[in-house]
Design goal:
Elements: E1 7-11, H1 17-33, E2 44-48, H2 56-73, H3 91-118, H4 121-125, H5 142-154, H6 160-166
Antiparallel strand pairs: 1-2
Length: 206
């Protein structure tokens, strides 16, 4: 029976060869009969040998492999489970890095190939082109997304129904209009025309 563990067995220098072999055989028998439990007797010292099944250089080799794979496929190394030295304030930041550094170059190549091979010269001259929408991959958490939609609607470049469509909600009758916040005015606008500014009989601000 082979031992699954490794030990250093120490005995006195005055032990002859016959006695030494007897000590070793007795050690093996005791280990086998007692399920690995050992009792250290007077005159004999037993020290276990620690064996690490994963060498330290294996981790270094794995990190080098992950780094090479990340360089070949243009992938952030943290997405290959190498998080050492990486710090991100949110998952949104991690996803944005992946989309911008990895997906967008690939998507752009597909767009160029589709435009070149699937569109006629007349269609290209008329302004037709292929474009992949990756905005869904860049959605942040609830707070960030709500702030984004609020600014888009208040600034008048996004309709409420467009927001509802992105959130898989049904459209509303008044949602197809562009809205603008009432507290914003163009710099060229006459101050007297602003909301809440009253004018006197002579047309001056009171």
């Amino acid at each position: 029976m082979w031992l699954n563990s490794y030990f250093i067995l120490k005995y006195g220098a005055n032990v002859d060869e016959k006695k030494r072999q007897q000590v070793i055989e007795d050690f093996k028998r005791f280990y086998r009969d007692n399920g690995g439990i050992l009792f250290q007797e007077p005159g004999v010292e037993i020290d276990p040998i620690e064996r690490k099944f994963i060498a330290a250089d294996i981790f270094t080799s794995e990190r080098i492999t992950r780094s090479r794979v990340a360089n070949v496929f243009n992938i952030p190394v943290h997405m290959l489970n190498d998080s050492e030295g990486q710090s991100y304030s949110s998952m949104e930041q991690m996803m944005r890095e992946f989309v911008q550094l990895t997906l967008m170059p690939i998507v752009r190549q597909y767009e160029q190939e589709f435009n070149r091979k699937l569109l006629t010269p007349a269609e290209r001259q008329d302004g037709f082109y292929f474009k992949f929408n990756v905005n869904a991959l860049l959605r942040g958490d609830t707070a960030a997304q709500s702030d984004y939609y609020t600014k888009a609607i208040r600034s008048g470049w996004m309709k409420p129904n467009e927001v509802r469509q992105l959130e898989d909600l049904p459209p509303e009758p008044e949602g197809n209009k562009l809205w603008i916040s009432g507290d914003l005015y163009p710099m060229s606008m006459d101050p007297t025309q602003r909301k809440g500014v009253s004018k006197g009989e002579n047309g001056t601000k009171e």
